[in-house]
Design a protein that fits this description.
4-stranded mixed sheet, globular
Length: 445
């Protein structure tokens, strides 16, 4: 495990150096424009400290970072690049330089072409992935982050054409970007994704996680198209995306010493996926109704524990099963005089898994709630949220208070709370020890 962690850290440093070099070359390409273009520079200094409610852990997060952003406008062309430097006192893998977005943009006659590293947001859901599958998530941190702040940019080409009430968008992403999982055993989230041992009916077996091998060829690129229409009574979009599952599935096998199993091996893999979906926003007086649906083919799910154990003990390789999913969401927003109130109902179905075939239940449904209020001319912002699984009643909840000390300086205090629900079966139970209180300060310039 230590050798694997060292290899991951080395590979991560090499990848970050390559991205940094690309960003510097990109910035140099902007210099000829600087004499005749408008250039803006913005930055932020941020620090966050998170202390768990559990007495058995130290800090679950401790990070300080600097982010710089440069924007250049020259006629119909523009460019943007952002770089971050972070020091992390809990997870060394996250210490270093990283490249955010780095793109060039041209627009003329209703057309907009954007090349480079960029964020792409689809759909109408708040914090739940249905059609918003283009950008993967950074899953190496959680405290004080919202869903938008955890998304990773992708390297690609986006062509958009806008009519007065209609827009068409086409995407090509030549190289796949997977979700970023914890690769350092010192990261408190490492144990959420990789168990230290498993029970196979005898003594606990240690687990070895092998290196992931994401697709790295242009032939394995991703493609997407989105059509949108805007009317006074309804905004709606249709989306189609052919790509890869961002989070790896795991193929399992046992290493034996004679006839006795001594280790469980997990081999990460990525599978092709196809998403077809739609979303709509409907104004209803003081309310906004949001609807979204997505059909996803090619998902991979673990088999039931008993079937997996029987196959492994027989010396077989356990492969996850392929299932198609249907996700549905309805949300309602209300903004009465300074308040922000939002509720969503969510269904996640595996229609072809009804009656068995996968460890995951064929139906999961959830309710999300969010409330916020600003005070003192928006100097103080209070918010609270909850994601409640209606099957096992596990939950993720939190609250925060943000105070603007000045136009540039803000201070936030918040908490993240997780519970496992009935018989600790829910997905959020794995995060229970990470329930924490956090404080964050941001200076922007």
């Amino acid at each position: 495990m230590k050798a694997r962690g060292g290899a991951l850290r080395l590979a991560g440093r090499v990848a970050r150096l390559k991205k940094l070099l690309a960003a510097l070359l990109f910035a140099l390409a902007l210099l000829p424009l600087s004499a005749q273009a408008e250039m803006e520079f913005h930055g932020a200094l941020e620090t966050l400290q998170a202390a768990p409610f559990s007495k058995n852990l130290g800090l679950t997060d401790s990070r300080s970072s600097f982010t710089g952003e440069v924007t250049v406008h020259a006629g119909a062309a523009s460019a943007f690049v952002s770089l971050s430097a972070e020091y992390n006192g809990v997870s060394p893998e996250r210490t270093g330089l990283s490249l955010g977005e780095a793109w060039m943009d041209w627009g003329a006659g209703g057309f907009q072409l954007r090349l480079g590293r960029q964020l792409v947001s689809w759909g109408a859901a708040d914090g739940i992935v249905l059609t918003d599958v283009v950008c993967p998530q950074n899953l190496t941190a959680y405290a004080g982050l919202d869903f938008a702040g955890s998304r990773l940019p992708v390297d690609g080409v986006r062509l958009r054409y806008s009519f007065p009430v209609f827009a068409a968008e086409v995407l090509w992403i030549p190289l796949f970007t997977p979700a970023r999982l914890p690769g350092d055993e010192q990261n408190p989230l490492y144990g959420v994704f990789y168990p230290a041992s498993v029970d196979m009916g005898g003594a606990p077996l240690p687990v070895r996680v092998l290196e992931a091998a994401p697709p790295r060829t242009i032939a394995g690129g991703e493609y997407g198209i989105r059509l949108s229409a805007y009317t006074p009574a309804l905004d709606f979009s249709l989306a189609l995306f052919y790509g890869w599952n961002d989070i790896p599935h795991f193929r399992k096998d046992l290493s034996f010493s004679g006839a006795v199993p001594e280790r469980l091996n997990l081999t990460p893999g990525y599978a092709r996926t196809l998403m077809a979906g739609a979303d709509a926003s409907v104004p209803l007086g003081d309310f906004l109704l949001r609807l979204e649906a997505a059909f996803t083919g090619g998902g991979r799910y673990d088999r039931r524990a008993g079937e997996t154990a029987a196959a492994l003990l027989a010396g077989q390789i356990d492969e996850p099963v392929e299932k198609h999913s249907l996700k549905l969401l309805a949300g309602l927003d209300w903004n009465p005089s300074g308040w922000t109130l939002s509720a969503q109902y969510y269904e996640d179905l595996l229609p072809d898994a009804y009656g068995g075939g996968a460890a995951r239940p064929w139906r999961k449904n959830a309710l999300t709630l969010r409330v916020g209020r600003s005070f003192f001319r928006e100097l103080l912002n209070l918010s609270a949220w909850c994601y409640l699984d209606l099957r096992d009643f596990d939950a993720s909840a939190g609250a925060s208070a943000a105070w603007a000390l000045s136009d540039s300086l803000s201070l936030s205090l918040g908490s993240d709370f997780f519970t496992g629900g009935i018989e600790n079966r829910g997905d959020y139970g794995a995060y229970a020890d990470l329930s924490a209180l956090w404080i964050k300060g941001i200076f922007r310039f």
